[in-house]
Records
---
Amino acid sequence: MTYTNIITQTDGNSFTITINRESKLNALNHGTLQEIKHAVVSVQENKTIRGIIITGAGNKAFAAGADISEFAKYSVEEGTQLSADGHGVMNSIEHSSIPVIAAVNGFSLGGGCELAMACHIRIASENAKFGQPEVNLGLIPGYGGTQRLVQLIGKGKALEMMLTGEPINASQALELGLISKIVTYDQLLDSCKEYINKFTTKSPKALEKVIQCVNLHFENSALGFAEEVKEFGSVFGTPYFVEGTTAFLEKRKPNY
């Protein structure tokens, strides 16, 4: 398949997916998300690939969120489908039999943060920032953020981040356990490949089963994910969503 929004590269035992929308801070539109899903699924049976890396083009952003201009006029039904489609992408990453590492370079906000959290390991550059600022748009996280952020950093801090919309820096993310390591931007991909080299010394079936069993631990959160899909769609029917997205596109503060 020829991709429009991502670049894929195989380097020995690693497969790198680069979101190639640098001018838009690698915002995740529908096409980009579906291409990421296709790329992840397409290498599952490739026995030479021992690790997948997801990153963003440039040093400013891993993915600065969803592409708001794409869904600002969506209805409740369209918003619900948007969330369901996003969950499908994130689930394909979380359930990948090959370990997936997020190489977070710069902003990882909204859908970008959710994309990073769907990966099994997260390594960040020194300038990385993580956040779920959807409340500023009259929205809630819609690609699994209300569930995975709690799983990774705990209820209290997760609620604080989602209720205030305020981001955290790489040092705070490391302290909270959201990421595994901080490196310079120049070291980011090499650090990911060091992990993949470690994976080559392990049984690929054992790694697959570890991922499977850990995911099963959280299986009862399925109701939470389903609730997120429903409620994400519901806020598309509120005037707050209209004002939030309109203000964003007009580059002004919303008036709630």
---
Amino acid sequence: MANRYFVSKMLLSLLAVVGTAAQAQDTPSVATSEPYRIQPGDVLTVSVWKEPDLQGDVLVRPDGGLSFPLVGEVAAERMTMAQLQQEMSTRLRKYLPEPSVTIALKQLGGNRIYVLGKVNRPGEFTFSKPLDVMQAISMAGGMTPYAAANDIKILRRKPSGSQDAVPFRYGEVERGQSLPQNIILNSGDTVVVP
């Protein structure tokens, strides 16, 4: 009888552990993503609460700057919405006691990459979240059968104007090797598939 009680107790403990493990596997993990960074060509809607003259759409110029009444010039490129909102609020405090600035992305125009060469759909692609090389090739419909998959280059322009060619070996990444070469692309990068 004591033996049967011990076995029952063990089975209940085991079921509890299995149930907890199964529940933990079913619980989705929350992925943290990088906040969107403003790029030249983006159109932002800016509004200051209770200030009808301080509302409107603002284009981020090719140099990465924008202009807004009372705020002046702001170098907005690569800022997050929260950073730009804070910067504009700080500048407006000279004129308004407690400015409440709201900024929204009206039109995505700046985050563009280019995929060309031996892919099924070469062209320009707009993206709103971080994008790596494998994802860019997928957006371009994958490679054609004659592509030199291990000779891919990512052309990246430096702020100085010069250009780097970053090598990418598709076959290695496809096999799960050399994964650090599957870099996150920057706006303006060109993926060349020979």
---
Amino acid sequence: MSHEIDRRMVLGAAGAAVVTGVLGRGSLAQAPATPQKVIAVNTSLRAGKTTAAGLTLCLEAAKEMNPALETELIELAGLSLPGGPAAGVPLGPEERDDFPRVMAALTDQRTAGIIVATPVYYSGLTFLCKAFLDRLGACRRDNFALADKVGGVLAVGVVRNGGQELAIQAVQNALLCQEMIIVGDGRPTAHTGATLLNPGTDDIAGDEFGLATARNLGRRVAQVALRLARTTKG
């Protein structure tokens, strides 16, 4: 379910380091006995574009916290996520449902962190993001299978103040209902999550501040996930 990301989209990552800062790594040097994993879920209808590029930065930064950390990008574009099961409506005889394999990846015991990303549509979520969040109700029914996993959110808008934080908060609210541990983008930006700008060019390389928030979010999710893993195993 991973897609190759056009590297030109993330050329601005080096410049973003000016405001990204460095999180302490000393306490994270030793990996847990069982390899941990961070999964990024792209709810954009356009696979491999700017939202995916932002998530790629998150995952790269997460892995910097510990090379043993596994990462995966799941693209929901092209998958079938019928809404009926979220309301108890059975699938039709010809209806395909790809959600069970997405859920299996998210609920895997190795998955310690989940980053959800959405483009901003009218200060809100994509319908694919809403369908995904609604279908996560199955995780609640499965003894809260996502409980205590670390969650972070990324949003991409066409202007700097284009509703990114509203979209992030909507996703966070849904993840809180799963008993997940929600984090923001971490120091030094340290706000609700990663907020990126795509000015209609499908190129986020010039958005140094947004790229910094993406990397900070990836680091923060990994940082908390690894600490929790050590505490649990200790």
---
Amino acid sequence: MIKRVSLVVVAVLSSAVFLSFATGVVLKQFTFNENDALDQWSKMVLNGAVDYELIKQGRAGYVQAISDKACSAIYYKMPYKVKDYPLLGWKWKVVAFPDISKARTPKEKDDYAARVYVIFPHLSFTFSKFIEYVWAEDIPAGTIFDSPYGKNVKMIVVRSGRTNSGEWVSESRNVYEDYVKAFGTEPKKDAAAIAIMCDADSTKTMAESLFDDIAVSAPETRSIEEVKQI
């Protein structure tokens, strides 16, 4: 897994695209309504390719992720300061959880139907940080813990169980506050990308989830002069 995460960091650092910040609350929003909505998202195959497909229903669209014993992500490069734009919102739906019934160790259980990442890469992988929001099947919502593959990946259980699975659920997180709570310090680096993932490689089973309406925003309007790009 460390090798997997390091590959994501290298990819993000090697081809970062800087954005022009616009005035207003929303820095970037993904509705997935356009036919080319995934063209600027990059694939990172970690342990087998997950099928990420843009599904259209009339004018509306969403991303369908299906994992068959596989683990891979798609990510969008967008360097920004989470202190300036701390809010991350999205909609997701779990169609099928990976079967963790036979998993015993934390690494064996490290499969989730739906993950949303904010990536803080560093030239040295040792100092790269990750905030990872997950929909878990058996871990209480609100739990924050280290990934079984390293303390630089902080996992936050946003939703738990099957109660709301099969239906769209909207989430909103303050990434800046979550980072401080998880790592005990402010981010020393800008975020460089967001990512979504569905994986079932550790359990060698299947999982499926849907993603939509991902948005990075600020709680109040900021002028372009207030936001410094690095």
